[in-house]
Amino acid sequence: MRYIQLVEFDSSHPAREIRQALDDWLAAARGKRTLQMAIVAADYERPNHYWELLEFPSEEEANRRSELAETKAAYDRWASLLDGVPAFHNLDVVEHVEG
Q1: What is the pLDDT of residues 18-29, one digit of tens each?
Q2: Residue ranges of domains in the chain
Q3: What class has domain 3-92?
Q4: How far apart are CA 24 and CA 74, in angstroms?
Q5: What is the pTM (predicted TM-score) of this model?
Q6: How confident is the model at residue 74 (pLDDT cuts 50, 70, 90)?
């Protein structure tokens, strides 16, 4: 079953730094990661509030990604940009409609 991790967080750092942290991990984990899609979004109505939507083929694949050394290093870098603790929402996809 497809799996989504929705991460909600605050950061007073510029959006480009948040994006760069994800881009750095994508480059470092190329060929090893199971991530199918990622979106970083700034909340339009709440300055400094962000969402990351990460999609994986399954929860097991997401967990496998979490064990990569590249993921652990990237998480530490990303966490250093946050104001407070992120909220992780772990979701099974029960329907996906395109178009």
Answers
A1: 888 888 888 887
A2: 3-92
A3: alpha beta
A4: 7
A5: 0.85
A6: confident
